[in-house]
Write a structure and sequence with these properties.
595 residues, Rossmann fold, six-stranded mixed beta sheet
Length: 595
């Protein structure tokens, strides 16, 4: 397979060229549009001045069709031009991601939760996060779906289904990027469209009497206007009809106000979702999982994309309410009432499906993101989920957020209920990074995504981390007490009986060395008797002696080398307790005189 960066670069050039061609067409049609309108005015004025009735009539009749056709063509070219621009932008972002630059990616900061079992410690959300690395969604539903997948482990069946879908979609770069771009046209990712969903779930009852008014009164009103113009019937009859219309429409002022507030800013959501659903309806999938998702858009006698489009066109009429002519149209055609009747009719037919459609779009976007992640990282592998408990075995495990040319990989394996791996090491040697490497790859594995490894096999388990415990002045909590609270959360979790994999970094670092050792030994012994296993990193070399008391404790370490004034960090995991120390050398390098 060609280098993904080369593929993205070629696509940038293709879409850049497409955009320029479409932009020229757009500008030409814009000129034609203006020229057609000016020509219509000139011909109409000349025909009227020279009393050329036939020409004037033909011009008036032809203009709406000709001008309308030009507008439709102009809008289509405008959409295609934007699509080309979005596709160029998508590939430019892919190039940046491939080079380790995530600055253009959504950070997903709204999902940061310091109390979550692992997301805060493993940089799942925020700046330079896993979410930025994986996310290719364009809608709020897609973003939420992907975030949820990263926060909660999937079942084995879900993971295997996602693996099959990734294998199918990863090579389909045109399909994936078209899908992503179609969700970008109305900039809806940051929109909170819960008011729209709330409105869709609620119904108002419109009495048959008012529905009858909506059908009959516009006809009567127009008939009276015609009789007044052509037969001399008193205009008071027309005013009476308009007054009745006014009374009827006024009855629904509050409902129209509620409707406008709920949906006026979200019509673009419906346009994008209609386009996305149509893209899925016209697709062909071989994977059962994708076919099942696609089936959610099936309706008897109609397509979900057309249904969404119909609602969007109904709600588009709300924009006309700001037009100064709307007052006349509303009290002649009872436009407000017509909008309410048509929207309520749509809701009765589709109310049960709309939330499912939105959620399914989100799930498609999430799996498409994982597929794009696989395409961009062809060296990554899909992990195997072991049916046995307490299994973790990986070859050439690396951290996906570290650039490939700087990444150091390690093999690692541990098994068994209650097993503990104690990792010792000198400062800056790689202990914390290794813990995060394991954690991030496990999160990817439980999401159903490819992992940064040559091979990874693991059982399903709850991940728990204790790494970034900091003080909280507002809550009067010291860093040590914050760490104790985190450990208490771990102990509460293992009491539930589900398999837990924990990673504790620099355990009990907030207290003196004697208490730290006593507490760490006690905690390790306690955890060794629970349905859990995990890693504890520490500077306390004596903690490594636990392997003499407990047969399920194993020691690993990261070592450094001092060559002159330079400290060399190989970042390679080695069996046994740490043999090298560099704190004194680091202090010397910072100007502290060590005797």
């Amino acid at each position: 397979m060609a280098n993904p960066l080369d593929i993205f670069q070629k696509r940038i050039e293709v879409f850049k060229n497409d955009y320029q061609i479409l932009n020229r067409k757009y500008n030409v049609i814009a000129v034609v549009r203006i020229a057609t309108f000016i020509l219509f005015l000139i011909v109409s004025i000349l025909a009227a001045n020279y009393r050329m009735g036939t020409l004037l009539g033909l011009t008036v009749l032809a203009f709406p069709f000709v001008f309308g056709t030009i507008i439709i063509l102009h809008n289509r070219i405008s959409y295609e031009r934007k699509q080309a621009g979005f596709l160029q932008s998508i590939n430019e972002k892919e190039t940046l991601i491939g080079k380790g630059n995530l600055s253009e990616q959504d950070k997903g900061e709204e999902y940061i939760d310091a109390k979550h079992a692992y997301t805060n410690d493993l940089d799942i959300f925020g700046a330079n996060s896993l979410f930025q690395l994986v996310n290719r969604t364009s809608t709020g539903n897609g973003k939420n779906a992907l975030a949820s997948w990263l926060q909660t482990k999937a079942t084995k069946e879900e993971i295997e289904n996602r693996h099959l879908a990734i294998k199918e979609l990863a090579p389909k770069i045109d399909w994936r990027q078209d899908f992503q771009a179609k969700g970008m046209h109305n900039d809806i990712r940051q929109l909170d469209y819960s008011p729209l969903l709330s409105w869709l779930k609620e119904s108002i009852h419109i009495k048959p009497l008012y529905k009858g008014f909506a059908m009959i009164m516009p006809v009567i009103t127009f008939l009276l206007i015609g009789l007044n113009i052509f037969s001399g019937v008193s205009f008071y009859y027309t005013l009476a009809a308009i007054f009745i219309n006014f009374l009827v429409v006024s009855r629904f002022n509050q409902q129209m106000k509620d409707l406008s507030e709920a949906v006026i800013d979200h019509v673009g959501v419906l346009k994008s979702y209609s386009s996305l659903i149509k893209h899925l309806e016209e697709s062909s999938f071989t994977t059962d999982y994708l076919q099942k998702l696609q089936s959610y858009f099936e309706q008897e006698g109609s397509k979900a994309s057309l249904s969404i489009s119909r609602l969007q066109k109904i709600l588009d009429l709300l924009n006309a309410r700001s037009n100064f002519l709307y007052f006349f149209i509303n009290y002649t055609l009872l436009f407000d009432l017509v909008i309410l009747i048509r929207s309520e009719r749509w809701k009765r037919k589709n109310q049960a499906d709309i939330a499912l459609w939105f959620d399914t779009i989100g799930e498609f976007e999430a799996i498409s993101s994982l597929s794009a992640f696989q395409f961009s990282n062809p060296g990554y592998t899909l992990p195997a989920i072991d049916d046995n408990e307490f299994i973790l075995s990986g070859e050439s495990l690396g951290h996906p957020l570290i650039k490939s040319n700087e990444r150091v990989t390690n093999d690692f394996k541990m098994t068994g209920e209650g097993a503990i791996t104690i990792i010792t090491g000198s400062n800056m040697s790689g202990k914390s990074t290794f813990l995060r490497t394991l954690g991030v790859n496990m999160v990817l594995a439980f999401t159903g995504a490819p992992v940064c490894a040559n091979k990874l096999s693991l059982s399903l388990m709850q991940i728990f981390t204790g790494m970034r415990t900091v003080d909280n002045l507002e809550e009067h909590v010291s860093s040590f007490y914050a760490e104790l609270k985190r450990i208490k959360a771990l102990l509460d979790l293992v009491e539930l009986g589900q398999p837990v994999f924990y990673m504790l970094d620099e355990i009990l670092k907030g207290t003196n060395s004697k208490d730290r050792h006593i507490g760490a030994v006690a905690l390790a012994k306690q955890l060794s008797k629970t349905r859990s296993f995990g890693l504890i990193s520490t500077h306390d070399l004596d903690l490594g002696k636990l392997d003499q008391e407990l047969n399920n404790v194993v020691n690993y370490s990261f070592n450094s080398q001092i060559e002159g004034n330079e400290i060399i960090f190989p970042y390679l995991l080695e069996k046994g307790i740490c043999r090298s120390f560099n704190a004194s050398k680091l202090m010397e390098n910072m100007g502290i005189k060590i005797k």
